[in-house]
Design brief:
By secondary structure, the chain is mainly alpha-helical. It has seven helices and two strands; from the N terminus they run αααββαααα. The longest helix has 21 residues.
Length: 174
């Protein structure tokens, strides 16, 4: 999942690129607040922050290092967090008094952002079950096998399309 977000602006969100309603996971300074909140909960390294967000979303979203590390630098420059050396070149970030005050001033937005991450995780859990993935993969393989045949009649293709449309309608009515 490294290398960029999955779902919101990334590779495989069920609602397509950009996530629900085509919006990005975070606007403006929202990622700053999420990172600040996670650091306030416990001092963390940059990679730990990426992993924490990915865990909160059930793997549906992982911010890229190319977004997280510059944001951490900005938070440090704003005196909202302080970096200290730990384990070689790694920096461990902790919230400052100014950062804690900033979180308190934005408590309602922070709560909404964390709820959004939790909802993405809950949605992922509902829509990404192993049995559904297995069944979809099975359907894909059968379709490829059947439709790649050189002697497949156009009537067969129409029957396959009708079956898939019928299945979609039945699932929609559940």
């Amino acid at each position: 999942m490294r290398g960029g977000p999955r779902g919101f602006g990334g590779r495989d969100h069920p609602e397509g690129r950009g996530g629900p309603r085509g919006r990005r996971m975070f606007d403006g300074g929202e990622l700053r607040l999420v990172l600040l909140k996670l650091i306030a909960d416990e001092p963390r390294h940059g990679y730990d922050l990426i992993r924490s967000i990915e865990e909160l979303t059930g793997g549906a979203y992982a911010p890229s290092p190319g977004v997280v590390y510059p944001t951490l630098t900005l938070l440090d420059e704003m005196d909202l967090i302080a970096a200290r050396q730990a384990e070689g070149a790694k920096k461990l970030y902790a919230v400052t008094e100014t950062g804690a005050q900033h979180l308190a001033e934005n408590a309602e937005l922070v709560a909404a952002l964390m709820a959004r991450l939790a909802e993405v995780g809950a949605e992922r859990a509902r829509t990404d079950s192993a049995s559904v993935r297995r069944a979809m993969g099975n359907l894909r393989e059968v379709l490829l096998h059947k439709l790649r045949s050189e002697d497949v009649a156009i009537e067969t293709v129409h029957q396959v399309v009708a079956l898939i449309d019928d299945a979609a309608q039945k699932i929609e009515r559940l």
